[in-house]
What does this fold into?
Amino acid sequence: MSLPYQVVDGALLVAVRLTPRGGRDAIDGLGMASDGNCHIKARVRAAPEGGKANAALIAMLADRLGIAKSAISLASAATSRQKRLKVEGDAVALAARIDALMSAPLG
It folds into this structure.
């Protein structure tokens, strides 16, 4: 399986498939899109209205990675379930944290 992120200009671009109104805030592992690209599967309790689900996703991912919310921004697809997030910081360290997050037991 490919990686759900790539290093671009010293930051990480992270592919995420978000399910709003998912019943809980959680990362559900890795998935593969029909085009063969890998993404992180995430769900949030927030509704998609007014950017609330995107904000909840950013807050959850920042918490799980141990970084500030301000280090994460929406790079593309604000209204789509398939999103790209730009994560600023030490790309190597961030990639290692995402890898560790994906290899940890879910739940």
Remarks:
- The chain has one domain: 5-103.
